[in-house]
Amino acid sequence: MYKKAIIYMSISALAFALLNVFVKKLGYFNVYQIVFFRSIGTLLFTFPFLIKNKISFLGNKKLLLISRGIVGCVAMTLFFMSIKHLSMGSAVSIRYISPIFAAVFALFLLKEKIKYLQWFCFGIAFFGVVLLKGFDNQINNIGLLYAISSAVFTGLVYIFIRKIGNSDHPVVIINYFMIISAIIGGVLCVNNWTNPKGIEWLLLLSLGVYGYFGQLYMTKAIQTTEINQVAPLKYIEVIFTMIIGAIWLDETYTLVSLLGILLILTGLILNFVIKR
What we know:
The chain is mainly alpha-helical and 276 residues long. The chain contains 12 helices and no strands. Helix 3 crosses helix 8 (170-189). It is globular and about 45 Å long. The two termini are 20 Å apart. The model has no long low-confidence stretch (mean pLDDT 85).
């Protein structure tokens, strides 16, 4: 079962990595247009799923579902903005410090406790970010701000999902997220709309396909075995993203930037192990 979970999580990580690469590749489109197509592409899967399984589109905890959708849309938009300014490996790594912000939000909003060793792990991850900013010339202030802001809002997403709990089907949660993102992205991109040409239509819609299958196989992996065995594997998305970016987009990384990314991932994985 564990081998199957590894395969599922690897497929998920590869799908998300391809999503990141295509967002970077399509960076000449307005970011809100990318958000719009990313959302529409996923809705092509969520709508038929809910209809086929006769699951209500409205859900139960409507206010929380809407809030999660809005916060998720902001987090996604900020992350796509960061990819325009940073190397993909750096952007993805910085976004992954979101569990730190989620833990802090949970401390105040859900009254959950944080162990002393977790603070130490958070310190390791933050030192990795500092190392990236201080010694990697590819890291600019605006890109760093976007990536960290995305991590903050992603941390809030975790809180909303925790509050929703098992009251609503996961696809209902995703569906709300994508509908709200499609509406917000669609409205905001109107004034800066660029008509896709030829294969660009397919590439833009593929963003939603990669996002959907990334989410689907991550869920399958978690359902296959214990979460503490597979969750750290999601960070191989960083490795896949860096490899594809280096081969396809000629992105380069200094030894110091690689050390910074390694520290971020080490801190996050240790935090997960300690928390479990």
